Amino acid sequence: MKRIVQIVRRFGPTGGMEEIVWQLTRALVEAGENVEVLCEVDESRGQPSVPVTVLGESSQRQRWRKHVDFSKRVDQWAANQNSRALLFHSHEMVARADVCTFHSTPHGTGDEHAWWKRLDPGWHANQWLECRVLQAARRVVPLSPLLKEQLALRHPFLNERLLPAIPPGVKPVKASRLVNKPVIGFMGWEWKRKGLGRVVEICRALPQTRLIIAGPLRDDLGNLLDGLDRVEVLGFVDRQEFFQRIRLLVHPARLEAFGMVISEAMARSIPVLVSDVTGASSEVCPAYGRVLPLAAPLEDWTAATVELLEKDRPPEPYRRGWSEVAEAYQTVYAQLSS
């Protein structure tokens, strides 16, 4: 049995992509796989109990140069190993990968008309990085069906190496009791891309609602909330505290490879209203909420908000165990090892 080498710059339960890798590693270990981790920074605190090789952080300032540095260090480490006994599973922009899990929207997606961005050499460097890793990987696994469509369109050379999506799991939690008041919630640091502007429009159109925002600080939002006093901006906050205070999660992102906050809300029996260009929309069936076209008029978004707020029973908790995710990857590993 080959040793599975998970490659991620920051390893630990820190949220986002890093937490996905950490949870997958835990599940693979529990499934009996021999796993090792290569990273720049280890924040796992020894859990799970696997060998972790810390390669050190890059001193480069530009993001793409940091990726190049990390890729070189991975290659240097691999040169001293018996590569036949290893299977490399990368989550980063590195040139060595048997399996590459793609966690973000393809570079340049949504910028087709932003010609000025192509004047920046860094834009082309990031494009080169993405093409390099996808050309090198033996198999590419997207997080969502939407992401698979985007990759197939942007990089048609992938062909059969582009596999069906393997969505991330979600930790089972105690389902929340629906808040009695019409409180809608939004969570996201990159609030412009994740659609906070549309959420604020919905709140303004529905004077009976309150809005709770987690992630950005009020000062980050400029004049977005001017004249609106039914809003509470929490900034950085514990996710459980946030979910306990809302009746509906609204996530009208204009560009989102997945959106873990959506599955986390559904796992707590909180209905969701999301855009169709959010990767996690594939997991949202009518029992859990609604998926609307990003370009749908405000009237459609407000009507769907009212409909979901008025539901008298919470949906059943969404379930997708990390063991299920690990099993899907084990199938991929087995195909490459045969």
Describe the structure.
The chain is an alpha/beta fold. It has 2 domains: 3-169 and 321-337, 3-Layer(aba) Sandwich (Rossmann fold), CATH 3.40.50.2000; 183-309, 3-Layer(aba) Sandwich (Rossmann fold), CATH 3.40.50. Helix content is 32%, strand content 17%. α1 (16-30) packs across α9 and α5 crosses α8. The model has no long low-confidence stretch (mean pLDDT 94).
Instruction: State the fourth-level CATH superfamily of the largest domain.
Output: Glycogen Phosphorylase B
Proportion of residues in helical segments? 25-40%
Determine the number of helices (DSSP H or I, runs of at least 4 residues).
Answer: 9
CATH topology of the largest domain: Rossmann fold
* Overall strand count: 14
Low-confidence stretches: none
Q: Structural class of the helices, strands and pairings? A: alpha/beta
Binned strand content: 15-25%
Quaternary state reads single chain
CATH class (first level) name of the largest domain: Alpha Beta
Provide a brief overview of the structure.
With 338 residues, the protein is an alpha/beta fold.
Task: Give the helix/strand layout.
Blueprint: E1 3-7, E2 10-11, H1 16-30, E3 35-39, E4 41-42, E5 52-54, H2 63-79, E6 86-90, E7 99-102, H3 121-136, E8 139-142, H4 145-154, E9 183-187, H5 196-205, E10 210-214, E11 231-235, H6 239-243, E12 248-251, H7 260-267, E13 272-275, E14 289-292, H8 298-309, H9 322-337
